[in-house]
Amino acid sequence: MPIRRRARHAGPKPDQGERTREEILAAAARVFSERGLAGARMDGIASEAGVNKALIYYYFGGKERLYAAVFDEHFREFNARALEVLGAPGSARAALLRYVELHFDSISRSRNSASLHQHFMTAGRIVQPLVMKYAKPRGDALAKLLERGMREGEFRVVDVRHTLISITSLIVHYFSIAPILRQVSPIDAYSPQELARRRAALLDLIRHGLFVHPESPVP
């Protein structure tokens, strides 16, 4: 009697596997943005992604690793572009304004992005490696830009650490309070008109709060 070989379990084909992984990450981002790590359930993420829960474990191993992978995906491209902008030669004023625009636009792309940023701030040890991988290098690059701008006479002399914190807060806080703004006023903080107004006000405040010559043209 011929011996039947046991078929080996094969994972998804490379192209299909990458698509499946991206779909899981996108679904997880939506669920985590709404419920956070504690409130999210793997069954719910699987349902949102339209896959079997076992497939999520196959790719990510568990909820905490999936949570970290969502943030890794979320910050990778933005951080690469941010470091490029912050390290660009030329006017420190121009580099700072481009960075602020980039950061603001990256959050304003969707309500999921803003909510994920909020969860990232309170996630603690789970995202600590990502803080060191993304947030710290970006913060260091922004600090160097502020120091260069002061040294070259483009920026007022300021406390670099607290100015860095203030710039980040000005960018992020608007999105953090967007749900409250909606409750106390008829304004949709995410409407194109309101986003444009907030973006312009943010850049104006940066110019007049930090630039030595706020009204002079920026190259």
TrEMBL record:
Name of protein: HTH-type transcriptional repressor NicS
Gene Ontology terms, MF aspect: DNA binding
PANTHER family: HTH-TYPE TRANSCRIPTIONAL REPRESSOR SCO4008 (PTHR30328:SF54), TRANSCRIPTIONAL REPRESSOR (PTHR30328)
Family annotation (Pfam families): TetR_C_29 (PF17938), TetR_N (PF00440)
Keyword DNA-binding: yes
Alphabetical keyword list: DNA-binding
Gene expressing this chain: nicS_3
Domain HTH tetR-type stretches: 18-78
Keyword DNA-binding included in the entry's annotation: yes
